[in-house]
TrEMBL record, chain A:
GO biological process terms held by the UniProt record: regulation of cell shape
Gene3D superfamilies in the record: Rod shape-determining protein MreC, domain 1, Rod shape-determining protein MreC, domain 2
InterPro entries: Cell/Rod_1, Cell/Rod_MreC_2, MreC, MreC_beta-barrel_core
UniProt key word Transmembrane: yes
Regions crossing the membrane: 14-34
Domain Rod shape-determining protein MreC beta-barrel core, first and last residues per copy: 106-253
Keyword RNA-binding: no
Upper lineage: unclassified sequences, metagenomes, ecological metagenomes
Keywords: Cell shape, Membrane, Transmembrane, Transmembrane helix
Entry protein name: Cell shape-determining protein MreC
Family, as annotated: Belongs to the MreC family.
The organism of origin for this protein: marine sediment metagenome
Automatic annotation (TrEMBL), chain B:
Source lineage: unclassified sequences, metagenomes, ecological metagenomes
Species per Swiss-Prot/TrEMBL record: marine sediment metagenome
TM segment ranges: 7-23, 29-45, 52-68, 74-94, 114-140, 146-166
Protein name: Rod shape-determining protein MreD
UniProt entry tagged with the keyword 4Fe-4S: no
Keywords assigned: Membrane, Transmembrane, Transmembrane helix
């Protein structure tokens, strides 16, 4: 017994180091294999408020470009409103609408790491929940992952765990949008079959297969493409429409029928087994 | 005198965390370089303090930065490692000298200080990026990030070090 106590006293620093190291590696590995850690994310109260304060100062430096972006979007929406002629068919009853939109602001953004997260200033109080889609006026941004009362973290499309359904515009060939961690302005579209005719510059939009994003949200254009190792699918480099380094105003998209779709899918899957 | 040194370290801790998360985590120099200047805390920390407290404090420093930057516990793990290895690194750089009572960091030569800081940074960045990327298949990517980020961190740390140089410790 004395020996053991002596041993512990002698190596107490080493044991402390090993203990804390196991704790931190545990947190790290857990989120590698599963999801972002539930505890260490910047949507909690203290970090959220500090980041928001800092953001409220730095917002002023980008007001010009932000205004320009919003003006551009308003112009485009007005174009659609005046020329589309579909105004009659808009359902005004909010319980009948499939998608509801909330606006938010980015208070923290990162794009240089393998797993990038964005923090926004809307949370559970604004009915933001996990797995909602986040877009900007130019294209998609990511998916809500954790929420607190006033803040939420968003898994950016620049995240090695990101996997979003996307397709080539005006066709029904869809694939998965992933990121190879190399460039912050390029993501990869995989699983597009070889028989599809591609051209550099083709537009990629979100597909309708996911219950998170509406169909047809712009993603980017084809930068280059080649066949993968099995020669049956394309690997496509997609240049993003969004400048991921410069994002301020975002829209959070909620699919009202998501729960229903998920439930149905789960039921069908459990029937298979 | 003792309370003064405690106070100094607390202020340093808070300032370095804020500077790191509000300024340097957003630098994105060349698209990927985010220097980690908070390593200076471990460089400046008094040598003859309780070692267990020092390791605990380093862990706390890392984890507070992790809270802000959504990086799981990467900063904590790497800061912890250099905190534990600091005596070994110091013995390597300064020889047996550093075990004497009269040893002061400011009494050593400039070259020794820079070597000490460089070793801290390299070990820290190696642990950090290895855990972050988490596969040896990307070894070149790890190496590239360690060297590029390490160089910028070193330069900034030296600048900060000479700006806020510690006269008495």
């Amino acid at each position: 017994m004395q020996q053991i106590i002596k041993f512990i006293i002698r190596y107490k620093n080493f044991l402390l180091y090993i203990f804390l190291m196991i704790v931190s590696i545990g947190f790290t590995i857990q989120s590698h294999s599963y999801h972002q850690s539930r505890f260490f994310n910047s949507s909690n109260w203290l970090t959220g408020n500090i980041l928001e304060t800092s953001n409220s100062v730095s917002t002023y430096f980008g007001l010009d470009t932000e205004n320009q972006k919003l003006m551009d979007e308003n112009r485009r929406l007005r174009d659609m409103l005046f020329n589309g002629g579909e105004t009659d068919s808009i359902v005004l009853d909010s319980t009948q609408r499939m998608y509801t939109i909330t606006t938010g602001r980015v208070i923290k953004n990162s794009f240089a790491e393998p797993r990038n997260y964005i923090t926004i200033d809307k949370g559970e109080k604004d009915s933001i929940k996990g797995d909602m889609g986040v877009i900007t006026s130019k294209g998609i941004l990511g998916i809500v992952e954790n929420t607190s009362n006033h803040f939420a973290t968003v898994q950016s499309i620049l995240n090695e765990q990101s996997n979003i359904n996307a397709k080539i515009k005006n066709t029904n060939h869809f694939g998965s949008l992933v990121w190879n961690m190399k460039r912050y302005d390029v993501v990869q579209l995989i699983d597009i079959p070889r028989l599809v005719k591609l051209t550099v510059g083709d537009t990629i939009v979100t597909g309708g297969m996911s219950s998170i994003f509406p169909e047809g949200i712009p993603v980017g254009t084809i930068r280059k493409f080649d066949l993968n190792s099995s020669n049956s699918f394309y690997n496509i480099d997609v240049a993003l429409f969004n400048d991921m380094t410069n994002i301020k105003n975002v829209y959070i998209v909620n699919n009202a029928f998501r729960e229903e779709i998920k439930e149905l899918e789960n039921k069908s899957q459990s029937n298979d087994q | 005198m003792i309370s003064n040194s405690y106070f100094l370290n607390v202020v340093r801790f808070i300032l370095l965390v804020l500077v790191q998360v509000l300024v340097f985590n957003r630098l994105n120099f060349f698209g990927f370089i985010n220097p980690m200047v908070y390593i200076l805390f471990l460089y400046w920390y008094p040598i003859k303090e309780n070692r267990a407290a020092f390791i605990g404090l380093a862990f706390l420093l890392g984890i507070s930065i992790d809270f802000f930057s959504d990086s799981m516990a990467l900063h904590a793990a790497s800061t912890l490692t250099i905190a534990y290895m600091r005596p070994a690194i110091m013995r390597f750089v300064f020889g047996v000298n550093f075990e004497f009572q009269s040893f002061k960091l400011s009494n050593t030569t400039r070259i020794q200080q820079i070597t000490f800081l460089t070793l801290l940074i390299i070990v820290h960045h190696l642990v950090f990026f290895t855990l972050e990327i988490f596969s040896l298949a990307n070894f070149l990517l790890i190496l590239k990030k360690v060297l590029a980020t390490g160089a910028v961190t070193l330069i900034l740390c030296l600048l900060f070090g000479s700006l806020f140089s510690v006269k008495k410790e």
